[in-house]
Design brief:
The chain has 601 residues and is of the alpha+beta class. Helices cover 37% and strands 17% of the residues. It contains 23 helices and 21 strands.
């Protein structure tokens, strides 16, 4: 694969995404630098040619080309873009659109007692450091700090260097910038916020302010901070980290983009919310700020075709949307070329479409635009007509979920609610479990999701032996990726409850030792993507663990445990003061049980 695989439709799709994100955010998201020699010009606006080409390749054939993949350099990129009919200009003379800076969010662990985290924060951020006390080691930084802090008190925080290559901390140290917002973290809570005013590196300053750790390293990557705000009540970090797809607990300095920052602002205290400029989006996008509620409403009111004399809506559009949602769940590109769409969606239409309906993948590919959740690039918008397969084969347009709807569907709860909305609205009389399995959403069958490709959902071998064998059982070698669980957290929840099931109070003994199981409320496997943390765990006996994971029981909003099918009460979930349970995880599990009721009916 290479530049020759890039299509005109892929380029147009990449340009549209760049318009929505802004050039700087677009480059950062896909790992490209600013164009130095050639820029792509579309409708008078300039774009970084390599970045556009790399993402265009993603939307043309499904694989991103990185900056290192362009063996022929910028000139070959320019040649390919021109061959596709685009204008490419010399970067030194092309007009460049002014960029609008937005703050990123920097997550900063404070450090525990071993690193003197609390003492260092109180000393250098809460109280501040007198500039006059460190002036002899500041060098040329003294003038800058005096200008930033007219009262002579500098608010400083630092980070130790790391020898690893391109890990989370390295990227955060490299890409953070003046104007970003820093949230300080400890004990699974955010307790303070500040704005970066200045960045510099100085081991002498760090040693004077904080000394050194047990490895004789010092916090030499220094931030000068302003607008410091310590929260009266610490903010639970788990929901914020979850929405940003950051593992909990937070161990490393972590940086996330402006658009991700905007997505978590509602979870942060109102006083601490900065004024964030709106994203660089075309007028058509800003006119319609899609919410999760709006997305679900649109999914339930698709303008579908109805056969003559029938009130039953066609399933073509809902099937295409379920297929698109499965791509988001699997972290695949949201936009796909017509050839791939046709290959993967046509069998779904044949198997799950209305009886007697024709297999016409071109219909949802084109007409889903009317939902406001779908976009097509590479063909003129000829309202009221459906391009034939011949025209689509010739132009190979690209289509898929809009950037906004795809971002909303990255939230596991919104994604689950979307699946429920589609299944309950359009697939009455369909084997919905088989449907979800066929579109790539089999993980919704259990609360723990798909955690090992080598086992069926019930953990049993996929095929039974047809004959009885003698001697030791046969073995096979398998390579797989497995989730890493924190055994200490599982042990903690069991000890807090004395190994007694939180539902039935059963205390089991196994080999003369207490036995219980730690059950994740929102599973760690795909598509649930739950966090491995204490608020996402229950201490259960094996029986109730199986029923909970199998979606046979759930915890109601009143704390009563009920059967999913019939709603009979099982008992009340016992709570423990030292074991906080995140209600959002219980709500997710309840919603999953709702899907189970729908798919079994």
């Amino acid at each position: 694969m290479g530049l020759g695989d890039i299509t005109r439709a892929g380029v147009l799709a990449a340009v549209a995404e760049c318009q929505g994100l802004g050039r700087e955010t677009f480059r950062r998201r896909y790992g490209f630098g600013r164009a130095l020699t050639y820029v792509l010009v579309v409708d008078g606006d300039s774009y970084d040619s390599k970045a556009i080409a790399g993402v265009a390749h993603l939307y043309s054939v499904g694989a991103l080309l990185s900056a290192d993949d362009f063996s022929g350099g910028a000139r070959t990129v320019a040649h390919r873009l021109r061959a596709l009919g685009f204008t490419v200009e010399d970067g030194s003379t092309a007009a460049d659109r002014p960029q609008q800076a937005e703050p990123q969010i920097l997550l900063q662990p404070r450090g525990g007692p071993r690193l003197r985290g609390a003492q260092n924060f109180a000393k250098s951020v809460h109280q501040g450091i007198r500039i006059s006390d460190i002036q002899d080691v500041l060098g040329d930084q003294a003038t800058t700090l005096k200008a930033l802090y007219p009262d002579g008190i500098a608010r400083l925080w630092g980070a130790t260097p790391t020898a690893q290559a391109n890990n989370e901390k390295v990227r955060a140290l490299r890409d953070r910038r003046v104007g970003d917002d820093v949230y300080f973290y400890t004990a699974n809570h955010f307790f303070a916020r500040a704005r970066i005013l200045h960045l510099f590196t100085s081991s002498p300053v760090a040693r004077r302010v904080w000394g050194a750790d047990s490895d004789d390293a010092t916090w030499e990557h220094i931030m000068a901070l302003g607008d410091v705000e310590e929260f009266p009540t610490p903010v639970l970090a788990a929901p914020v980290l979850r929405q940003m797809n950051v593992p909990a607990p937070l161990w490393s300095l972590t940086l996330r983009s402006p658009e991700i920052y905007r997505s978590v602002l509602p979870l942060l205290p109102a006083k601490s919310r900065p004024v964030v400029p709106p994203p660089l989006t075309p007028p058509s996008a800003t006119a319609d700020q899609l919410t999760a509620e709006g997305l679900l409403e649109r999914l339930g009111s698709l303008r579908t075709h109805r056969q003559p004399g029938s009130r039953t809506p066609s399933r073509h559009q809902p099937l295409a949307l379920l297929w698109a949602i499965s791509r988001i769940s699997a972290d695949r590109p949201r936009l796909t070329p017509w050839a791939l769409f046709r290959t993967e969606v046509s069998p779904l239409l044949a198997e799950f479409g209305l009886p007697g309906s024709k297999v016409t993948p071109e219909y949802p590919f084109w007409h889903l635009r009317g939902s406001g959740l779908w976009e097509v690039h590479g063909m003129e918008r000829d309202a009221g007509t459906t391009p034939g397969t011949g025209a689509l084969d010739t132009h190979q347009p690209v289509a898929g979920l809009t950037h906004t709807s795809a971002e909303l569907l990255r939230d596991p709860l919104v994604r689950l609610q979307a699946v429920i909305k589609l299944c309950s609205t359009y697939f009455d009389g369909v084997d919905q479990r088989e449907l979800l399995n066929r579109v790539g959403l089999a993980g919704y069958a259990t609360a723990d999701g798909l955690v090992d490709e080598g086992e069926d959902a019930d953990g049993q071998e996929g095929a039974a032996a047809t004959e009885r064998a003698t001697g030791p059982a046969a073995r096979r070698t398998r390579t797989s990726s497995q989730l890493v669980r924190d055994a200490a957290i599982a042990t903690r929840v069991k000890e807090l409850h004395g190994h007694a099931c939180q539902i039935c109070e059963t205390r089991l003994q196994y080999k003369r030792r207490p036995y219980s199981e730690a059950a994740h409320i929102r599973g760690l496997g795909t598509p649930h993507d739950g966090p491995d943390e204490l608020p996402n765990l229950l201490c259960l006996c094996p029986n109730h663990h199986v029923l909970f994971d199998g979606l046979e029981i759930y915890v109601g909003v009143d704390g009563v445990v009920r059967h999913t099918h019939g709603d009979e009460s099982v008992g009340r979930l016992r709570q423990h003061n030292g074991h906080p349970i995140d209600e959002a995880h219980l709500d997710y599990h309840r919603t999953l049980c709702e899907l189970s009721r729908i798919t079994r009916s």
